Amino acid sequence: QVQLVESGGGLVQPGGSLRLSCAVSGITSVYRAIGWFRQAPGKEREGLSVISIRDGSTWYSDSVKDRFTISRDNSKNTVTLQMNNVKPEDTAVYYCGASRFTRDPLVWYEYDYWGQGTQVTVSS
User: Fold this and answer.
1) Residue 64: is it exposed, middle or buried by C-beta count within 10 angstroms (0-12/13-18/19+)?
2) Buried b (16+ CB within 10 A) or exposed e, 24-37
3) Cα–Cα distance between 73 and 23 in angstroms, integer?
4) What does the pLDDT look like over 43-59, one tens digit per residue?
């Protein structure tokens, strides 16, 4: 059974940095990618960054591509999202998910499993 557990959220000041981790277990070869998404109150779940399980290819949304970096550590079965120069509009619950995507890895409905989420609050 696929399990994903996020960690690393918290309160950070504007312009600061935060590092989120996603511990992954139970992934089989049918899954293609692990992605990071976020959801603010009243808004749709937004795709941020995705990394291929197979070859390490990455995808980024325009809103974060110059500030966030996704990486993986296969030895530890973790996927990390490094967030730099954070802004108040980055405040949301952040989720990681596992996908067998066929078209667009940055849309939430391409994902089968999700973690429980971790809150990120950007405020001074």
Assistant:
1) buried
2) beeeeeebbbbbbb
3) 10
4) 999 999 999 999 999 99
